[in-house]
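Private note to self, pasted from the team thread so I don't lose it. Backbone tokens:
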């Protein structure tokens, strides 16, 4: 060993070195500083957070609520969430609810709570990359089970191969990560599939970790007052190996606020409190006050967003299915939830290169399918949380780009 301290390696742990860098960022960097790029790459609404929510945070700051608070969240926010979750998914209480500084932080905390090095985690992919990378930070191994694109009918759909997933969920699997509605595909698990998966996970003691952040962004024709995707919380007991992660980011247009929550077995709560203490100690009080108002007054916001995104989804899917795009090899399944169209382009083998060219040559910002795991290669993700005018402009740019490539 060298005795000079400046000769020691300055590199982070190998698990960190081998983490993937965001390919969406890589595309966005290619368009850095350009004002003319239409940005559909990130999973973000085009609107600022509604005023009532913003006012709640301002009032809290003006009242001087600038101090540390409870590890697990303000009691009033935990109660508000428990009441909301009970309405959606059956009775629960504050002993099962913990607040976190974002959905992604909730997922990291759960990984820290449960995963040991070399644990086997199964994930349904393509998937938002954070869910695949987080277990690796803890030294766990992630096994992917890909969704399949079914093109046998006039309406192509992303589908789960349930048998394949059940086979991957072996007795030595620690946890299943399941995100439905799914980012990037918009696929949504059915109740029947949930029942089979829950029974299987119960049999083998596998933790079922559901990422439910898009549960309110669903596009069924349901007329129920609180439209919501099917959740494992609807069919599970409160104190078994089922965890649901949620966020204020998507339902209430609060991506930049960094506020989320978890519904977990009570037995985990004490350990979680300690972990929050050593990670962030607590979520900021004024952000939590905004969270209370978001839930209490937010149903109108959610309804308006659902209406707006339904129109955007229908428009974009119809447009990308027009003869020009079909002839160019595009297959655009209609998503059942979330806010993305994940379309295939036949013959495409380098979605990252294509997305970079689209930015630099056409001013169109889309996310490469390969950002969501190797199973996503050959596809592109388009976030449709935007105006119909912008979506149309984006389609025109894509069309012109494809024409120019064909004539070269
Ligand atoms: C599937 C999924 N889970 C969780 C999140 C995290 O949301 P946040 O960290 O903003 O609460 C996102 C954000 O894009 C997501 O797509």
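Design output:
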């Amino acid at each position: 060993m060298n005795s000079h301290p400046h000769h020691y390696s300055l590199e982070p742990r190998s698990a960190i070195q081998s983490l993937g860098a965001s390919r969406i960022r890589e595309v966005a960097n290619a368009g850095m500083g350009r004002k003319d790029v239409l940005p559909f790459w990130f999973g973000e609404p085009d609107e600022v957070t509604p005023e009532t929510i913003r006012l709640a945070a301002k009032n809290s700051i003006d009242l001087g609520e600038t101090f540390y608070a409870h590890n697990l969240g303000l009691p009033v926010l935990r109660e508000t969430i428990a009441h909301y979750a009970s309405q959606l998914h059956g009775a629960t209480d504050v002993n099962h609810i913990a607040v976190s500084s974002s959905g992604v932080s909730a997922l990291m905390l759960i990984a820290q709570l449960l995963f040991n090095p070399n644990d086997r985690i199964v994930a349904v992919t393509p998937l938002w990359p954070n869910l695949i990378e987080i277990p690796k930070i803890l030294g766990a191994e992630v096994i992917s089970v890909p969704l399949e694109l079914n093109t046998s009918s006039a309406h192509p759909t992303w589908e789960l191969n349930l048998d394949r997933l059940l086979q991957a969920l072996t007795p030595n699997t620690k946890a299943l990560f399941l995100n439905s509605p799914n980012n990037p595909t918009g696929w949504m698990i059915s109740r029947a599939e949930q029942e089979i998966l829950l029974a299987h996970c119960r049999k083998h003691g596998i933790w079922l970790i559901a990422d439910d952040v898009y549960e309110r962004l669903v596009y069924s024709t349901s007329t129920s007052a609180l439209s919501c995707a099917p959740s494992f919380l609807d069919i599970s007991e409160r104190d078994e190996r089922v965890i649901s992660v949620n966020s204020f980011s998507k339902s209430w247009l609060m991506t930049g606020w960094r506020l989320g929550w978890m519904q977990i077995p009570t037995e985990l709560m004490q350990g979680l409190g300690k972990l929050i203490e050593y990670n962030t100690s607590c979520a900021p009080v004024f952000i939590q006050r905004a969270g209370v108002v978001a839930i209490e007054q937010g149903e109108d916001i959610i309804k308006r967003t659902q209406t707006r995104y339904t129109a955007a989804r229908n428009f974009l899917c119809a447009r990308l299915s027009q003869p020009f795009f079909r002839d160019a090899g595009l297959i655009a399944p209609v998503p059942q939830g979330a806010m993305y169209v994940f379309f295939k382009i036949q013959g495409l083998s380098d979605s990252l290169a294509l997305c970079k060219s689209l930015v630099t040559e056409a001013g169109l910002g889309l996310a490469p399918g390969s950002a969501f795991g190797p199973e996503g290669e050959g596809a592109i993700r388009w976030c449709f949380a935007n105006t119909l005018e912008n979506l149309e402009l984006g389609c025109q740019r894509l069309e012109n780009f494809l024409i120019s490539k064909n004539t070269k």
